[in-house]
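Researcher: Next sequence.
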Amino acid sequence: MNEAATVTLEGVLQALADPVRLEMVRRLAAAELALPCGGLYDDVAKSTASYHFAMLRESGLIEQYVEGNRKMNRLRVAEVETALPGVLTSILAATPRH
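Model: Next structure:
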């Protein structure tokens, strides 16, 4: 993980404005542990999913790492909560699940 990934309100809001990325974050939040890429999205091409993962990484919401032959994703809850107390929890609670 690039520790220089800065969590900003603008970045988080832009990342979570897309329903696909919001659902990816929902799934990570519900799991409370790292998940492989394939378990975080439905009905989008792999190339599109890669774009969404990049947006989530750049916003500082997720960390990705390789475990065996799978790329794992971890929601950076503590880091986001430190930078923006209550924002992620509020967004996830206030938006309907698709």
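Model: The domain at 9-92 is CATH 1.10.10.10 (Arc Repressor Mutant, subunit A). Residues 19 and 76 are 19 Å apart (CA to CA).
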